[in-house]
Every structure is written in structure tokens, then in C-alpha cells.
Design a protein that fits this description.
The protein is mostly beta strands and 120 residues long. It has no helices and eleven strands. The radius of gyration is 14 Å and the shape is elongated.
């Protein structure tokens, strides 16, 4: 069984910073692309940032230059460094990890979500 545990969400002021972490555990064969999504009240879940096995990254236009996604495969951990936070960044943030439990099957897993609130 795979478990993703997120941490780092908090209440911060406009312009502040936070670092989110997502730790994967279980009988994992290998990791594939990892990403962070967010969902604000009344809105659809959206991709914030993603990172491939090779380290290639992509970001939503709204966070480019402010957020940085990274991964530490040795620690089974995904990170999201968020700087210059804005009230519109307020949302529940979810990690999404595509991984393999064996060489033949890949599937995505979701974390439980961590709340980020940015006050004006």
C-alpha cells in the first residue's frame, strides 16, 4: 500500500513564503512524474507545477518565477517552495505522484491535501 503524506501548509501574510513537502512510503518499485495541484473553494483542481524523472519542470503561468518544484528520490520526497505568496494562492494543495509498484503498471496517487492560506 502506498501512502503520500503532505506537510507545510499554513497561514501566512501576503508576500510570505512556505515550503510544502510530500513523502511517499510503501513498496514502491520506481517513481515517474510528480506534481502539485491546488483547489480553491468553488474552483476546479488545477496543476501548479510538475517535475519529471529527468528533472524537467513546468509551471502554471500564475506561479512562474515565484514557486519552485523539486524532488529528492533518495528520500521519496517532493517539495514545493512558494515565495511571494498572494491571497489568490489560497487553496488546498495536493501532491500527485505517478509511480510503479512493479515494472508493468504505472498509476497516480494523491496526497490528502494541505491548506495554504494567504492573508491580505
Amino acid at each position: 500500500q502506498v501512502q503520500l503524506v503532505e506537510s507545510g501548509g499554513d497561514l501566512v501574510q501576503d508576500g510570505g513564503s512556505l515550503r510544502l513537502s510530500c513523502v511517499a512510503s510503501g513498496n514502491i518499485f520506481s517513481f515517474d512524474t510528480m506534481g502539485w495541484y491546488r483547489q480553491a473553494p468553488g474552483k476546479q483542481r488545477e496543476l501548479v507545477a510538475a517535475i519529471t524523472n529527468g528533472g524537467s519542470t513546468n509551471y502554471a503561468d500564475s506561479v512562474k518565477g515565484r514557486f519552485t518544484i523539486s524532488r529528492d528520490n533518495a528520500k521519496n520526497t517532493l517539495y514545493l517552495q512558494m515565495n511571494s505568496l498572494k491571497p489568490e494562492d489560497t487553496a488546498v494543495y495536493y501532491c500527485n505522484v505517478k509511480l510503479r509498484l512493479n515494472p508493468y503498471q504505472r498509476r497516480p496517487y494523491w496526497g490528502q491535501g494541505t491548506q495554504v492560506t494567504v492573508s491580505p
